[in-house]
Design a protein that fits this description.
The protein has 640 residues and is an alpha/beta fold. The chain is 44% helix and 13% strand. Strands 11-10-9-12-13-15-14-16 form an 8-stranded mixed beta sheet, with helices on both faces. Strands 1-2-3-4-5-8 form a 6-stranded mixed beta sheet, covered by helices on one side.
Length: 640
């Protein structure tokens, strides 16, 4: 029946549609194999429709679920699947095939929770099977396979009207979560500021580091309260992530060995613990368990958290409660999500959201990071990791988003290499393997301490994401306490993610990296002081933008034939007449294989008027008459 219906809608025998039971076929390639395993294991789908792009790259367009013979996908099961798809964003649509109908769901729409507190999802479109007998049936034309094969479906008036326009409002998983967290932060700052007694304020001031030229009272109100509120928000979402991340037995890190909250604090859950004023005790306990300094508090932070006003405790306790309902939007926040399927960069992006802006630094959107990592570390390049060694560094790592994406790709490569040997797709890796991949291959530098904290946090989350609650609780150790070398992972801040000026780091760094990748700061400045302070050899004709200096100097970190990929201001390297001499010098000494020019997307990518491009450079002299692929990106019709 399932294949018969696919035949009606012209999807049967279409090479773009693969069934999950085809996942081990030799000729499907590693990109589609990975997606088919995900579709089967994490989303319970029966088939995936792929669009083939250039260079044999495949992008999943929608999942297909077979509900024709049994009620395998009842409303409860389908709601759970929808939460997973909405949280992850892996595909924009999914089709549920029934005996008489095809229901099409938009994964950009969140689950609805009725007044009776029942979770519901509604299809965006319902197609009657009987109508497909008519060749002129309009819906058959609206969903013809050809439109998905060439990607034009997403540009059709039908898609824009029926799918896109209904989700243009701020309803993405990130937007909803971030707006609620900002509300929490605002309430915390106000409640603490209004209710902190004069005696407590004086005691707190004595714990704060002396800040030159800044009145300590002002420091308390303007900086420390905000900083601590930010930290509380970040702690809250990370612990909520740990609480919601469940294994197949519905156990979290806090319940896998019995109810930790009940055993240690005589409460039932995280929400009750906060209400009882035990929040700092939990943070200290987790800091001791996980190390890595993720949950570490300063004395001033611990003092303030221990003396939070009752109103603040009640509000925070209410916020992390499983049935928390936003007073303005009336949303049951946590019931919308499937936390184990939230992209890890979304959680780490939250951390970044709650720190001050840094001059010249813009947040790099995840889809752009993934595009560049795919170009530099394609999934089918797994043989590069046969010996478990492929060193990557981001010279201005910021939140660590490039480091995280590169780490995830190295894990993919490891899984594929093992699959080639055993024919078993095993994504449940040993913790020793995950630690080794991270500690031996992923590196970053940033001069901002808070950026280093975020990068460490992000990489830690990327590691946590791959572990079961049992592994998290029993095996995770970020320090060198183990006598078994395979279990060791030095503090990431000491070994992998350095708090340093990159040009100082460069003086002692080894030139053995396979990939330099990142988005250095776009700051116009003269280089005389840098040249003197760090003994740099800088070409005289170099444009006076810090990002171009990163281009010029970070390539020294590469081994011969290593690859560099940096996001740069396109005027300073491509278009300004003043850049021509340096550009010619650079092209004479290194092989620029391609440039992806994002100038026309400057207001789309970074929410600022920043014209950028991505430079891909090999550390080798160019061959005679070598060509450079210059790709220019444009807005699509519906973006216009």
């Amino acid at each position: 029946m399932f294949r018969e219906i696919l035949k009606y809608i012209d999807f049967n025998n279409n090479e773009a549609l693969l069934f999950v039971n085809q996942k081990d076929e030799e000729n499907i390639g590693e990109i589609r194999r990975k997606i088919l395993y995900l579709a089967q294991d994490d989303y319970f789908a029966d088939a995936v429709f792929f669009q083939k792009k250039e260079n044999d790259k495949y992008v999943p367009q929608f999942f297909v679920f077979d509900n024709t013979n049994t009620n395998k996908y009842n409303s409860v099961k389908l709601t759970d699947i929808h939460k997973r798809l909405w949280s992850s964003g892996i595909v924009p649509l999914y089709f549920v095939l029934e005996k008489e109908k095809i229901k099409i769901y938009n994964t950009k729409e969140k689950v609805n929770i009725s007044e009776e507190e029942k979770e519901e999802i509604n299809p965006t479109d319902i197609l009657e099977i009987s109508n497909f007998i008519d060749k002129n049936f309009q819906s058959k034309k609206d969903y013809t396979p050809f439109l998905f094969e060439n990607g034009s479906f997403w540009e059709t008036e039908y898609y824009i009207k029926n799918y896109l326009k209904t989700t243009i409002t701020k309803e993405s998983p990130f937007d909803i979560l971030i707006s609620n967290l900002h509300e929490l932060k605002k309430d915390l700052i106000q409640n603490i500021g209004d209710n902190l007694s004069e005696v407590l304020s004086i005691n707190l001031i004595n714990l704060l580091p002396k800040t030159k030229g800044l009145n300590q009272s002002d420091n308390l109100k303007k900086q420390f309260l905000t900083q601590t509120a930010n930290r509380i928000v970040v702690f809250s979402i990370l612990i909520k992530y740990l609480e919601e991340k469940k294994d197949k037995n519905n156990k979290s890190v806090f319940t896998v060995k019995g109810n930790l909250f009940r055993k240690k604090w005589n409460v039932e859950n995280y929400s009750e613990l906060i209400k009882e004023g035990k929040f700092s005790e939990l943070l200290n306990y987790l800091s001791g368990r996980f190390n890595g300094k993720i949950f570490e508090l300063t004395k001033a932070e611990e003092f303030l958290i221990n003396n939070l006003p009752e109103k603040s405790l009640n509000h925070l306790s209410h916020f992390v409660n499983a049935d928390y309902k936003n007073r303005n939007t009336q949303l049951y926040l946590w019931r919308l999500y499937s936390f184990q399927f939230l992209p890890v960069e979304l959680i780490s992006r939250i951390y970044e959201e709650f720190i001050p802006d840094t001059a010249g630094v813009v947040y790099t959107p995840p889809f752009l990071v993934d595009l560049l990592v795919d170009e530099c570390m394609p999934l089918d390049g797994y043989e590069s990791f046969n010996n478990e060694k492929f060193k990557v560094i981001d010279p201005a790592c910021g939140s660590g988003i490039f480091c995280v994406s590169a780490y995830q790709r190295l894990i993919d490569w490891h899984i594929i290499n093992e699959y080639k040997k055993t024919k078993i797709w095993n994504k449940d890796l040993k913790i020793e393997t995950l630690k080794n991949i991270l500690s031996e291959n992923i590196f970053g530098v940033d001069k901002e301490q808070e950026a280093v904290n975020i990068a460490v946090f992000s990489l830690t989350l990327a590691l946590l994401e791959k572990l079961t609650p049992k592994q998290l609780w029993e095996d995770l150790d970020f320090e060198d306490k183990s006598t078994n070398k395979s279990k060791k992972l030095k503090n990431l801040k000491e070994k992998n993610i350095k708090h340093d000026n990159f040009f100082n780091y460069l003086k002692t760094a080894a030139n053995d990296f396979d990939l330099v990748i990142g988005n250095p700061p776009f700051i116009r400045q003269n280089f005389e002081k840098l040249e003197t302070d760090y003994n740099l050899q800088i070409p005289k004709e170099i444009p006076k933008n810090l990002s171009i200096l990163f281009l010029d100097q970070s390539i020294k970190l590469l081994k011969d034939n290593g690859l560099q990929c940096l996001i740069l201001p396109s005027p300073n390297i491509l278009y300004n007449d003043g850049a021509m001499k340096y550009r010619n010098y650079f092209l004479e000494n290194y092989t620029v294989s391609q440039v992806i020019d994002f100038t026309h997307l400057r207001r789309k990518l970074f929410n600022k008027d920043v014209a950028t491009c991505a430079f891909f450079v090999k550390k080798q002299k160019p061959k005679k008459d070598s060509e450079i692929l210059h790709l220019i990106s444009h807005n699509t019709a519906n973006e216009e």
